[in-house]
Write a structure and sequence with these properties.
Blueprint lengths: L4 H12 L3 E5 L11 E5 L4 E10 L9 H12 L4 E7 L4 E6 L3 H7 L7 E4 L5 H9 L1
Parallel strand pairs: 3-4
Antiparallel strand pairs: 1-2, 2-3, 4-5, 5-6
Length: 132
């Protein structure tokens, strides 16, 4: 059975994002919980990242539970992120949880907090955006 696109993206993240420990979360209990818990050593920090791969179109499919999770944590000032691989545009885009409702409604037209090519990813710059 072929791996799901989000699983492949998680593998690339795990293999290339240095100085951190990535735990893939598969939860049937807490709907809406992001795919990855990432612990950074320097600076010491935990973040959560939802992974999405868009193969066609310009919309990101976020469930109401996922939108709610990110919006609630944004209200508390706790950063969570959505990392989207737009395959048609060969691009990775990172969105902060403050942008989740706009992302769900407007998709591609939402300005990301970080973006780069999906083939030759500047993983160090993505890391900086995640810990900022």
């Amino acid at each position: 059975m072929a791996a799901k696109p989000e699983s492949l993206l998680a593998g690339r993240l795990r293999d290339n994002l240095i100085g951190c420990c990535i735990t893939r979360l598969e939860s049937r209990v807490g709907l809406g919980i992001p795919d990855c818990l990432i612990a950074f050593r320097r600076p010491p920090k935990f973040i959560m990242v939802e992974l999405k791969v868009v193969t066609a179109g310009k919309q990101v499919r976020l469930s109401p539970h996922q939108i709610s999770f990110h919006a609630r944590h944004s209200d508390y000032g706790v950063p969570t992120f959505v990392l989207v691989e737009w395959q048609a545009h060969l691009e990775l885009r990172l969105y902060h949880n403050k942008q989740v409702i706009e992302l769900a409604e407007q998709g591609w037209s939402t300005v990301p907090c970080w973006q780069g090519p999906s083939r030759a990813v500047a993983w160090n710059l993505l890391r900086v955006a995640l810990v900022a």
